Amino acid sequence: MHELPLLIFTLLVQGSVGITLFLTLAVRKAKTLPAAQRQLLPAMLLACIAGGLGLVASTLHLGYPLNAFNALRHVASSWLSREIVFASLYLAVLGLCTLSMLIRKSPLALLLPLATLLGLIDVWCMSAIYASSTVVTWMHFNTWLMFYGAVGILGAVAMAWLPLLNTPGVMQARTRLLRLAAMLVIAIVAVRLLAQPAYVHYLASAPLNGVVTLPHQPVEAFNQHGGLRLFSWVASVLGAILFAFSAWRHRRNGVLFGGLLLILAEILFRFVFFSIG
């Protein structure tokens, strides 16, 4: 698959932003407890590494990685240029916050929320790159739902798996975060499912005028991946139910297997997304 670097890039960066989002919520609960704050460091390092590897993977798609610098010359008119700028700013601010945690054993108050904001803007730009293209299967609001949905789902799974706020003094805060993660995952999967009929109807009636990339091929590929898409939705729904129920009831094995199903579904969704383009 020639779009494999983009699959890796988008999922890693969106996962990194999701982790940062939940870290921001966790810091609010742990700011008065140094022992709890120190538990945030592995998650910060994971977010940094995932974001950094994602950016490296994105350059592999260019063929000649140094061409990435040329994309910065059109920030005013290019979503790609804006995405590169905000991805770089996001990673820089997150890196500073992680460095602060390593040195001071405490994150700077404003850096983590700022990194989250920059990351969410970056995901918007990332979505707009594809939604503004001439590939008919991408030119729909479903693209934003899938990309932002990955942020919430991957962040929720990471938060549930990592020992965030696992200190006895803040276990109540962890319980609230787990339940927030459970509700978020259910909401994301439900909204995505509700949007699918409109998306399929759009593809069936998509206008051909002005579309340069011959939309017959993406739509044809979309239909050919029907079995894989069905499997992905089954994995996503079952994973969301198992994850949410287990997170609410504090059942570790259920959280683990439900999270694995959710991650598998996100990978398959993204594979189909790029295969039909």
Uncertain ranges:
none
How many helices does DSSP assign? 10
Alpha-carbon Rg, integer: 19 Å
**Which structural class should the secondary elements be placed in?**
mainly alpha
Biggest β-sheet: count, sense, barrel? none
Tell me the helix content.
over 70%
* N-C termini distance: 11 Å
Q: Shape from CA axes?
A: globular
Order of helices and strands: HHHHHHHHHH
- Determine the strand fraction and express it as a percent band: under 5%
Give the number of DSSP strands. 0
Mean pLDDT: 84
EC number: 1.8.5.3
Pfam family, one: DmsC
Keywords: Membrane, Oxidoreductase, Transmembrane, Transmembrane helix
GO molecular function: oxidoreductase activity
Structure description:
With 277 residues, the chain is mainly alpha-helical. The protein contains ten helices and no strands. It has helices spanning 4-30, 34-38, 41-60, 79-104, 111-131, 142-161, 171-204, 216-224, 226-249, 252-275. Helix 1 packs antiparallel against helix 3, helix 1 (4-30) runs antiparallel to helix 5 (111-131) and helix 7 runs antiparallel to helix 9 (226-249).
Which structural traits does this protein have?
single chain, mainly alpha, 10 helices, globular, oxidoreductase
Quick description:
With 277 residues, the chain is mainly alpha-helical. It is built from 10 helices and no strands.
Question: Could you give the topology of this structure?
Answer:
Elements: H1 4-30, H2 34-38, H3 41-60, H4 79-104, H5 111-131, H6 142-161, H7 171-204, H8 216-224, H9 226-249, H10 252-275
